[in-house]
Amino acid sequence: MIPSSIAEFREAFQRERVSRTYSGTVHLLLTVGASLVVVLYCLLQLKNVRAVEWLTIPATFLYANLTEYVAHRGPMHHRFRGLRMVFKDHTLEHHRYFTSEWMELDGMRDLAAILFPPFNLALFVGGTGILVAVLLGTWISANVGYLFLAVALGYYANYELFHLAYHMPENSQVGRFPVMEKLRLHHTRHHDLQLMSRCCFNITYPICDLIFGTMAPRAASKTAPKANGDGAAISRASEAPASRSSSRAPTK
Ligand SMILES: [Zn+2]
Ligand SMILES: [Zn+2]
């Protein structure tokens, strides 16, 4: 049974932070659909790709994995000037909505506590991604620019879908895929309040966690979390989600 502290937090979050008209299905379709449209558009622009240009795919994939790791280990779990909202949305809200004790969502409205809001896609991923793609297209070649943007947006959709899968019920179809089981466990360990600021920062593939030595300790258990580190920050925060525009889905 869901712990009462999590149930109360979820109720307050839904009441104060999520619009009554919010639809998790629309949020998901918008996030993944818009990303895949851009991916498809970019792939259709490719012309006579040279062998060396295909290397853009693994290079961008590793760059995206590093970006995911740095953003999560940095501003999502530490207060940075100008990025406090990111810390609040992730550490103080996502990590209270889902803990290693209770990772499962309880309906489509819970997607507001998992997916990034659509403007993230437009601003951070689309905006900066397009800028880098244009620079690469100008400095190297159009094919490299298009491949970069296609992989970046594809990775973003992958991130959102995997993160959603980890918070689906454990016995759901997707949660039972062997690889997905392992990745889900990796993320579950990150949701332990004792470990969340120390390990398992990759949400998709734990490549940077392996490189930087931040895989979960072997003895990591799924016991009840104690408040220390960011856990203490969580305890110090008010019981209810910080109030701001209730119509906006929070970032993760
Ligand atoms: Zn999560
Ligand atoms: Zn986290």
Structure description:
The chain has 252 residues and is mostly helical. It has one domain (4-236). The protein is 55% helix and 0% strand. It contains 9 helices and no strands. The chain has helices at 4-17, 24-44, 56-73, 84-97, 118-139, 142-166, 178-190, 207-211, 230-236. The longest helix has 25 residues, at 142-166. It starts with a helix and ends in a 16-residue tail after the last helix. Mean pLDDT is 87; it is low at 221-229, 236-240 and 242-251. Residues 94, 98, 163, 167, 187, 191 line the site of one zinc ion (ZN). Residues 94, 98, 163, 167, 187, 191 line the site of one zinc ion.
How are the SSEs placed, and which strands pair?
Blueprint: H1 4-17, H2 24-44, H3 56-73, H4 84-97, H5 118-139, H6 142-166, H7 178-190, H8 207-211, H9 230-236
The protein binds zinc ion (2 copies).
List keywords for this structure.
binds zinc ion, single chain, mainly alpha, 252 residues
Radius of gyration: 19 Å
Q: Work out the count of structural domains.
A: 1
Estimated structural class: mainly alpha
The CA-CA distance between the termini, in Å, is 24 Å
Q: Tally the helices: what do you get?
A: 9
In terms of DSSP E residues, the strand content is under 5%
The parts where pLDDT drops under 50 for at least 5 residues are 221-229, 236-240, 242-251
Ligands:
zinc ion
What fraction, in percent, of the residue positions are helical?
Answer: 55-70%
Order of helices and strands: HHHHHHHHH
